[in-house]
Amino acid sequence: MSKKKNDKVKDEQESVKDRVEDILDEAIEEVEEKDENQEDAEDDSNFGMSETELLKEEVQKEKDKFLRLFAEFENYKKRTSKERLELFKTANQEVMTAMLPVLDDFDRALTEIRKTEDKNLLQGVELINNKFRETLRSKGLEPMNVEEGEAFDADIHEAITQIPAPSDDLKGKIVDVVERGYKLGERIIRYPKVVTGK
Hints:
Keywords: Chaperone, Cytoplasm, Stress response
Main location: cytoplasm
Number of helices: 3
Oligomer: single chain
Radius of gyration: 32 Å
Number of strands: 6
Structural class: alpha+beta
Family: Belongs to the GrpE family.
Pfam families: GrpE
Subcellular location: Cytoplasm
């Protein structure tokens, strides 16, 4: 993660800590003011209640306030951890999306090199290509395998054009794959571009 994003996360955490401290300070001041007001009111109205009952009631009120503050803080922790995870996923997705044109270039280069007689060049480029793909795969990038003859699904394919189907069984199905699609984990970061038959 970049230094700028780290600083942003730290600033957000400090800002939230400051807000929690302010809320706690306000709650304490509020409790102290209420206690003073209640003591005056209780002196006037609670002649029939024993001191133990008054203390139990006070403890119950304080317990309720504490539980509310604790629940609010737990919600804050969950929210910030979720935001942090989203930040990591987004940063990773941006890098992977930037690498996809390089993968496409490797595919085109391998296609052209296979047409030549230079086996050493082919082996070298294949070695680099495989290492690059394995590194990206270890970070969660997976190619989407789409083949000719599969049924077209608008949720996972992007149709760029329609052509007359070469045969009746290819009508409404994928005739050609123009650009391979990729997933990062379960999320599709680039939809496969396909040609469908009509």
